[in-house]
Predict the structure.
Amino acid sequence: MDIFGNLSAVQQRIHQAAVKSGRDPSAIKLLAVSKTMSVGTVEKAYEAGQRFFAENRVQEWQDKVIQLPKDCEWHLIGRLQTNKVKYLDERVTLIHSLDRLSLLETLESQGAQRNIVWPTLVQVNIARDSQKAGLLEEEVEDFLTEAAGYKHIRVYGLMTIGALNASPEDTQGFFRQLRLLKERLEKKTLPHVNLKELSMGMSQDFEWAIQEGSTIIRVGRQIFGERIDTTNEYIKGGR
Ligand SMILES: *Cc1c(COP(=O)(O)O)cnc(C)c1O
């Protein structure tokens, strides 16, 4: 796997997509989604200059964070179980999947106990896909109003996953909808809520996401190759 070559290809595509839509390429953060990949594989991306990584399993993140250099930034994506919150700490740069009240409450109580303020994004199921997590568009405003009352939570933006098997037009439409939602809601002044980030775009659709204003893209397969989820490289390696 030519991770160095893959990374530079992705960076080039980010650059082109940004320029095409009149955006500054440096305003788009590339997260390398390293879930299921071994520490050695993640190290290759590090050696190629990548510093921002995203994981979806707390246990895997815990193992990797101690083995990779300290200047890595770690993001959490994917459903976060409330009973895993106790394993998180300040080494998590951003939780992308705040999607329900019970998680809000658990983060708050853990944050209060341990004096941690959690940086989060609210996950929105913009495609209204029953297979996917996230709040429905019409639920987001009330949720943010609720979150504003929690001292140990900061909401920095919105996150979504594009619909699987959707046409390019539909996908771009979903990303646009999320941007419009953010633009509408950022006008409300709520304490602890500062909607600046839009986490949207993955391997198959990040260029459309950039055209629609994405500030964080989450790319796995285009950097690390296909994940063979049944023989998780990470678990196979004995961890
Ligand atoms: C796995 C995952 C990604 C990366 O997907 P690729 O198709 O490998 O780029 C991005 N976001 C979330 C939430 C994921 O679970």
Observations:
- The first helix runs from residue 3 to 20.
- DSSP finds nine helices and eight strands in the chain.
- Residues 33, 35, 56, 77-78, 161, 202-203, 218-221 surround pyridoxal-5'-phosphate (CB under 6 Å).
- The domain at 3-224 is CATH 3.20.20.10 (TIM Barrel).
